[in-house]
Automatic annotation (TrEMBL):
Pfam families: DUF6241
Taxonomic placement: Bacteria, Bacillati, Bacillota, Bacilli, Bacillales
The organism's place on the tree of life at top rank: Bacteria
Keyword Transmembrane in record: yes
Residue stretches spanning the membrane: 7-28
Name the record gives this protein: PRK06770 family protein
Keywords: Membrane, Transmembrane, Transmembrane helix
Organism: Peribacillus psychrosaccharolyticus
């Protein structure tokens, strides 16, 4: 190694920026890959909502171990990531990063996790409000709920602008998974 030769500061800055982007890409890819069901393991049903209208229910054929997916004491950013990724199947947004099927099993488990650690999560009230409404198949505010989490994550791209129709939601799910009939 040549002593005395210094690497230009601009080059270090550019290389650092590229490394951060690559790391972020790999992280987001692994989050999406690790937090999703296998390609052909979902079934979709359109059901009547308790307060009128319809909602889409996703059923995983090869259910993951939900307790391992969301262990007690999971980090607050992981809770936010899960809620955010699940909301994507129901909201209109120009950009969406990450998709996690919104299932009743996941909603119920996240409710347990947040209630168990309620004192330790800074935004537990927000998570509980969202998860309780989803547990009751109430999705009329899912776009606002998405944006609440999006803001907590300092979102700048991908703000929800509305709620998908049942047909749009099915199409979004089919884009990510092969749906079993």
């Amino acid at each position: 190694m040549n002593k005395g030769k210094k690497i230009p500061v601009k080059l270090v800055a550019v290389l650092s920026f590229i490394a951060i982007l690559a790391g972020l890409y790999l992280y987001l890819s692994s989050v999406d890959g690790n937090r999703s069901a296998s390609k052909s393991s979902l079934a979709v049903k359109e059901l009547a909502a308790p307060k009128g209208g319809t909602f889409i229910e996703v059923i995983e054929k090869d259910k993951p171990d939900i307790n391992k997916e969301f262990p007690l004491g999971i980090t607050e950013p992981a809770i936010q990531d899960a809620i955010h990724a699940m909301s994507h199947q129901k909201v209109k947004a120009e950009d969406k990063w990450g998709f996690l099927p919104l299932t009743q099993d996941r909603v119920k488990r996240l409710l347990e996790v947040v209630k168990d650690g309620e004192e330790t999560y800074k935004h537990a009230d927000t998570y509980l409000t969202i998860l309780e409404s989803w547990n009751n198949q109430e999705f009329s505010s899912v776009d606002k709920q998405h944006n609440d989490i999006w803001r907590l994550q300092s979102g700048t791209i991908g703000k929800a602008t509305g709620i998908l129709s049942a047909a749009e939601e099915k199409a979004y799910i089919e884009k990510h998974y092969d749906i079993q009939k």
